[in-house]
Design a protein that fits this description.
- With about 130 residues, the chain is mostly beta strands.
- It has one helix spanning about 20-25; strands at about 10, 15, 30-35, 40-45, 45-55, 55-60, 70-75, 90, 100-110, 120-125.
- The strands form three sheets. A four-stranded antiparallel beta sheet has the order 4-3-10-7, with no helix packed on it.
- Strand 5 (about 45-55) and strand 6 (about 55-60) form a beta hairpin.
- The chain is elongated and about 50 Å long.
Length: about 130
């Protein structure tokens, strides 16, 4: 394997320090539909997605993380928008974060029950293996 050493990376118009790319970029992300047939709409470093029950999913990485101490950010859109309980609480069940996958749980706005999101957005920052 070859190694390229550079202090900056440019697309010909904009230049960023190489540390931004190595340390600061999202290492995985996925935009998925959680209702009906669960579908990955677009992704990076995501090999698949499992529906493990109402409002619960597991995102699998193409390339694993180096350890389980990475950071996850999640957002989503409610399947019940416009209703009295519209909105969504979405989070990770971090006790199940592994180097090759992580869990996502989606709840009603009052967190009274699991609920499938119309759309969910998941991204990971950390070190790849």
């Amino acid at each position: 394997m070859s190694t390229i050493i550079a202090s900056n990376i440019s697309d010909g118009t904009t230049s960023v320090p190489s540390t931004y790319v190595v340390n600061g970029s999202a290492k995985a992300w996925v935009n998925f539909t959680g209702t009906g047939s669960v579908t990955i709409n677009d992704s990076l470093n995501t090999s698949s997605l499992s529906d493990i029950g109402t409002g619960n999913y597991r995102v699998y990485y193409t390339t694993s993380m180096s350890n389980v101490n990475y950071s996850i950010t999640i957002a989503g859109a409610s399947a019940t928008a416009g209703s009295a309980g519209s909105g969504k609480n979405i989070g990770t069940y971090t006790e199940y974060n592994l180097v090759n996958s992580a869990g996502v749980s989606c709840f009603t706005a009052d967190a009274a029950a699991y609920e499938d999101p119309t759309r969910a957005f998941f991204q990971v920052a950390g070190d790849l293996a």
